[in-house]
Structures are given as C-alpha cells and as structure tokens.
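[Meeting: bench + compute handoff]

Bench side (C.D.) handed over the final construct sequence. Compute side (W.E.) agreed to return the predicted structure before the next meeting so the bench team could plan truncations. Sequence as handed over:
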Amino acid sequence: MQVQVVDYTAKDAAEKFVKSLRDTGFGVLINHPIKQSLVESIYKNWQEFFLSEEKHSFAFDPEKQDGYFSAEISETAKGHSKKDIKEYFHVYPWGRIPEALKEEILEYYRLTSLLAAELLDWVEVHSPADVAEKYAEALSHMIKDTPNTLLRILHYPPLTGDEEAGAVRAAAHEDINLLTILPAANEPGLQVQGQDGEWMDVPSDFGNLIINIGDMLQEASGGYFPSTSHRVINPTGKGSDKSRISLPLFLHPRSEVVLSEQHTQASYLLERLRELGVKV
C-alpha cells in the first residue's frame, strides 16, 4: 500500500486523506494553503542561522525544551544506540526565538496550526463510530489554546565521512504527538515502513505537504490509526555534501487532555522524552 497524494481542493480530499492515514500512517497533500514561498524563505533564513555562531546563545532549556539542540546532544531514537546526525531548534510561541526570524516563523506556526485543526476534523469525521467514541473530546478541540504544539527546525548537515559507524540522519522512529505536518524538505531521504516491513519513499516533491500519525492519536483511537515507523536515510553521491532543512510541526494536545485510560498528554510525553534521553 502506497502513501496517497491527495489534492486538498478535491471534493473527496478528506475521505482519501484519512484512508491513506489509516492504511500507511501517512498522507500527502498538494494544492494546500501553505505557501511555498514562505517555506523556501524559512529554509534559507534558518540555514544561515545554523551556519552562524548565534545559535549557541540559544542553548536549549532542559525544563522548557525550547531553543537550540546541538548535534552533540541530539536525540537517540527509541531502540537505537547511535545519535541522529542532526541539530535543531525548538520553536514555541512563548519560547526564545532569534528576533530576526521571529515574525516569519510564527506566521508559519499559525498557518500550519490552523490547517492541522482542519485535518483533525477530517480524521474525526471519517473515524468509525466505535473509534470516535474513544475520543475524550473533539480532536480539534484537544489542541485549542494548547501551549504544547512544537515546531522543530531541523538541520541535517552535509556528511563528512567521519560520522559514527551506523549513524543516520534520523533513525527509524515513531512520532509522539497527534499529527505531524511537514513540508517536503529541500533534499530527499524520508521513508516509511510498510505493513510488510519494507521501506518505501514518501512522495517528497518540493511543494508537497506530508502528514503522519503520531503515538498520541494511535493511543486516542485505540490503535485504529497507526503511528508508523519512519526514518531519514543518509544521502549518497553528490547529495551527501548538501544540507537538509526540515520543518515538522508536532501537534500536541493541552497537557490535561485525556488520551486513554492510561495516559494524559502530559504523562505520555514525559514517558517518551525519558525514553529519548532528552529529559531525566
């Protein structure tokens, strides 16, 4: 089963999109409302930021989890022992953001959050009745006024040949949140694992908007919507000397939102952050 590319403006977009999420954990939108010119400008401006020394003045706050995470303290995916080859910056509207980059990145955060609420409505409308009954509240209401939705600006640096053996840009993992919204990056490499265990490329043409299910939606739906493993493989040949910028928006409910009998958003997130080694 392949990840479906769905025209956001089509009459049956919601149905096709949710079916792709159900079948593969991923869906791809074209003709969506996020302007490519905005994405390209963010790629350019944050590339310059990651190449500057300014980034070190925004070193991450272990409690708030905002700011700059260097390659030395990057994540180790659950079940893996090698750190990912990446550095990144966590943007929250209430957090620290470089002043010159603030207006643009917060506008992107606002626009993608609005789209995310619409996509959650699509998911709920096309959930079977017995699955919808499991939602403690409307899915789109779970993110209303949430301070927890995270925009991560990722920088995968060019490969030098000195990387630790076995390390990749992003090892196979599942996301923690409800949905992740990701404009296709400026370089390929994103893959999703199918039900047969085989890896397939996610359609990543520049301008595509890639959406995938996170563990919290899997939890809230009683497993109906699968949080599937995905990874970013290392490039080969000429592609290895290029940086890769990526802009995933991780859609998180408010802390008190009940996901299941076992978890609220807060308890689930804390458990996963400890597994990732970024919180004690």
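W.E. noted at the follow-up: The CA atoms of residues 38 and 56 lie 25 Å apart. C.D. will use this when planning the next construct.
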